[in-house]
Amino acid sequence: MHAGERERVDSLDVHNSYLHGSTVTFGRLIKFCIGFSQKVIHH
After folding, report:
1. Domain that holds residue 4
2. What is the number of other CB atoms lying within 10 angstroms of the CB of residue 6?
3. Do the domain assignments include residue 9?
């Protein structure tokens, strides 16, 4: 494996983990908003 290929794989891993983290955070935010709006509707 050449150095350039290894760098590309590393940057791809970083991008994937960042994307995954963003997706998880976004998902939690949506769940929180849904739960909050349901509480508001019930009151």
Report:
1. 1-38
2. 10
3. yes
- 33: tokens are 């908003």
Q: Number of folded domains in the chain? A: 1
DSSP secondary structure, 1-43, as one string: --HHHHHHHHHHHHHHHHHHHHHHHHHHHHHHHHHHHHHHHH-
Query: Is there a domain that residue 43 lies in?
Result: no
Q: Using CA atoms, how far apart are residues 38 and 28, in angstroms rounded to an integer?
A: 15
Length of the chain: 43
Per-residue pLDDT tens over the stretch 1-43: 677 777 777 888 888 898 999 999 999 999 999 999 998 877 6
